[in-house]
């Protein structure tokens, strides 16, 4: 039972096989396959990946106010202000609609 558990939860599936091993590659094609493998790995980028620059209005807003070290409460204040402006605009529109014929003034 212990061997089954070890086999099921081993990290073998996470580690790629050794493609360049002499037991795996044999004959005249050995040099060609290793050369292709080496050239493939040489073309891969090295080092840390650069952070992508934000694009679009929401991406720039998120990068400026929400992500990273500069996270703040500013988006909450923007939301409160936006709800106030929309609510006031709707209320003002219906107020003008109600007093369309100057009946109450």
UniProtKB/TrEMBL annotation:
One of its GO terms (molecular function) is proton-transporting ATP synthase activity, rotational mechanism. PANTHER family: ATP SYNTHASE SUBUNIT F, MITOCHONDRIAL. The keyword Transmembrane applies. The chain crosses the membrane at residues 70-90. The gene is ATP17_2. Keywords: Membrane, Transmembrane, Transmembrane helix. This is ATP synthase f chain, mitochondrial. It comes from the Eukaryota. The keyword Membrane applies.
């Amino acid at each position: 039972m212990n061997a089954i558990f070890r086999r099921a939860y081993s990290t073998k599936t996470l580690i790629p096989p050794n493609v360049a091993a002499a037991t795996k590659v044999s004959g005249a094609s050995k040099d060609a396959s290793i050369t292709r493998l080496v050239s493939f790995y040489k073309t891969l980028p090295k080092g840390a990946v650069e952070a992508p620059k934000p694009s679009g209005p929401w991406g720039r807003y998120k990068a400026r106010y929400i992500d990273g070290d500069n996270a703040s409460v500013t988006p909450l204040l923007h939301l409160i202000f936006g709800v106030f402006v929309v609510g006031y605009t709707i209320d003002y529109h219906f107020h003008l609609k109600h007093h369309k014929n100057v009946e109450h003034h």
